[in-house]
Amino acid sequence: MTETITIDGPLKWPEIAAIADGARLALSERARQRIVDARRIVDALVERGVRGYGINTGVGALCDIVISRENQQALSRNIILSHACGVGERLERSEARAVMAAQIANFAHGYSGVRIEIVEALLALLNADLIPHIPSRGSVGYLTHAAAIGLVLIGHGSVDDGKGGVSGAEALSRLGISPLRLEAKEGLSLVNGTPCATGLAALALARAERLFDWADAAAAMSYENLGSQANAFAAGPMSLRHSPGLQTVGAKLRDYLQGSPMLASTAGNRTQDPLSLRAVPHVHGAARDVLAHAGDVVNRELASLTDNPAVSGTPEAPEVHSQAHAVGAALGLGMDALAVAVAEVAAISERRIDRLVNPLVSGLPAFLAGDSGVTSGFMIAQYTAASLAAENRRLAAPASLDGGITSALQEDILTHATPAASKVLVIVDNLKTILAIELLAAAQAYDLQPHAIGRAQRTNALYQRIRAAIPAYADDRPMNADIELMRETVTDERAP
């Protein structure tokens, strides 16, 4: 049975990620009432003629132009149509679902003032898996992504129904919903806030968290293959360095490598191992610490109202507040930090791959080829990993410092939270490929060990899992097919 997540208080990023992967979303009665109450406040603001940004004024640099009551519906509709100017490839279905979930969660705080019908329509689309097509590029913050969702609500745009594309009007018709006529403020609220960045960030966190577990597993296999020292991760010395992530990774490596006959046979051969092996807890652990911090940032974002303006008070004493809550500076900074952390995990993985294929340091056949010279083995797979690690270095440049000026100097600082989250997803995908290559190379290295010495129990389980799906490589097939199979395993399964 599909899991249902109910919004009552603030959601957490793992819940957004679960919704992205197919969980259903519902509102508690308290959340529903908060939305209804906030709309009554907006109606009171309209009735009293209280000036409110995007309610009865233009938007952006047009914020001082007062809009008559009879034109406020037109303003809401026009905002959706004019802001729907995103370009490029569409977001994946899971990414679009994450954005929708974060948007609904933002409205459920009860400070945006959209009608409950808006939120119910969004929920109906999400739970029916009728997912708006959202162009992935063209956002400095949030507007274009969110407008693509708003289009569907008014009967425009298009939707992925899992079988192909259908029009927004057709998607609504399947749900028994007529295209919505937007009221005052609803157009602005539908394109506003940080749900785009928050949804994508939650997905990046979930994917990175899973891959960090696989990175520890791959590192353990490489470490064992390369004749490393048995006690480098001993608990006592490791405890001298204060880092929750480091301690977690150290414990995982000790567990993976416990009782390894291979490591016992090489004990004392070296004073210390190279950093790509010895510093795995320090690098992987630091990345885990960054991930934990980024998760806290995203959870705070999900607990916050990121709409502008916010409404509060009562229908008898309505208030409207033009703050900068839609600015995603914290998200941009958090995702930029995560981008660097994921890129560093990928970089150290590529360095371990290089050691596995280099006969000068591995003691194994060159490039893990059974008949080097006639066969190239993993020579070019390491090139692929090096290429992706280099791409990650380029992508890890901070998006939050890109700056820029929009809307005739009204928006004269931009924090680029959505692009920051988007590029983390690309870096995470590159890490997945690099880890797939390391896992395959490490399995191949086991096959080519010159002495029949047993592996540790847990690394042997990893090896057996890989070999159950992918045989040893002998230049007998295109390697990218093997890499893709390993990527699927890393995507679909947890590291053992």
From TrEMBL:
It is an enzyme of class 4 (lyase). Its EC number is 4.3.1.3. SUPFAM superfamilies: L-aspartase-like (SSF48557). InterPro entries: Aromatic_Lyase, Fumarase/histidase_N, L-Aspartase-like. Keywords: Lyase, Plasmid. Pfam families: Lyase_aromatic. GO terms for molecular function: histidine ammonia-lyase activity. The keyword Translocase does not apply. The keyword Lyase applies. This is Histidine ammonia-lyase.
